[in-house]
C-alpha cells in the first residue's frame, strides 16, 4: 500500500512539475524572447492605466471590444505595475497559472483526470505563449471546470460559462449544449445565466452610465477579414501571387487584415454564414438531444458525450465561420477535449490527436512564422492554410460524431443493460459508466 501511495504521489508530482514548467516556459517566451506573442497585454495595461490614472474605463466610460467582465482580470494584473510592461506581464502570467492550477485540481478528481491533465500540458506546450498572453487564457479554465461539472452541478456550470462570456464571449456559446442535457434546463441553466447577467448589467449601470454595455457586439463591426481567418484562406494564398490582394496592419485592433479584390464581399458573406452556421450547429445539438429522449438519468455517458462533443462542435464552428481568426482562439479547443479525456469518454483519441496538431501548427504560425506571413511569403502562408484546412476537417468530423453518437451511446447503454429494459433486472436504472478508457 505504501509503495502504491508513493508511486501515485510521484506521478502527481511529475505532472504538476511539468504543468508548471510549461507555464513558466510560455511566460519566458512571451516576456523575454518574442514580445509580439504578448502584444495584447500592452493594450490591457494601457487601458488599465487610463482607468486607474485618468478615470477613463472601458465599458464604463467608452466603448470596448470586450464585455464588461474583461476589466476584472486586466485590473488584477495591474498589481504588477502599470508603468512597466514586464511587471504587468509577469502578474498576468501568474494569474493565468493560478487559474489553470485550480482547474487542474478539479480535473484530477475525475476518473481519468491524469490522462486529461497530461494532454492539456502537451497542448499548452504545443500552442505556446499565445495560449497564455490573452484574455482567452483566463476563460479556458472556467470553461473546463464548467464542462466537468455540467452533469452534477449544471447551475454552477451555467454561472461559470456566463461569467466567462462576460469576459470573452466564446464561453457563452457552451450554454447551449449544457441546456440540451440539463434535466431542468430553464431552472438549472437559463435562470442562473440570466440572473448573473442581470447582476453584471445592473452593476455597470450603477457604476457607469450603461451606454456602452453592449458595445463589444458592435465595436468591431467595421473590421475587415483577418489574415488568419479560415474563410480568408483563398485570399491569403492569392495575396502571395498577386498585388490585387494586400495585407494591411490594423493598428487600432492589433491585427492584420486582407484588402483588395473580393475581400469586402467575402467579409459580408462570412458574417451571414456565421449566423446561419451557428443556427445549424445549435439545431444539430438539439436534434441529438431529441434522439436521446428523456433517458439522461439512466445514460450519463450519452449525456456527457453530448455536452462535451456539442461544446467542441460549437467551438470549432465559431472558429471556422468567423471573419476573425486570431491564434488565441485555438485555446477554446482545449476544454472539451480535456473534459472528454478526464471523464473517460470513448471515441476521443483521434480528435485529441488532431487538436494537438492544430496547436502545434498554430504556434508555428504565430509567433514564429508570422512576419513571413504578413510579408506575403509562400511557405509560411501555406502552413497557415494547412492549419485552416485541418480546422474544417475537424468541424466535419465533430458534426459526424454528433450525428452518429446517438447510436454509439445506445450501444454503450445496451452493453450495460443485458435486458435492454433500462433497469438492472431489479427495477433500478442502469447508469452507463463514465470511466471507460478514451
UniProtKB/TrEMBL annotation:
Presence of keyword 4Fe-4S: no
> Which residues are listed as membrane-spanning?
12-38, 89-108, 120-149, 155-182, 189-208, 265-287, 303-321, 327-345, 352-370, 390-409
Q: Where is this region: Disordered?
A: 414-438
- Which UniProt keyword terms apply here? Membrane, Transmembrane, Transmembrane helix
Name of the featured protein: DUF2029 domain-containing protein
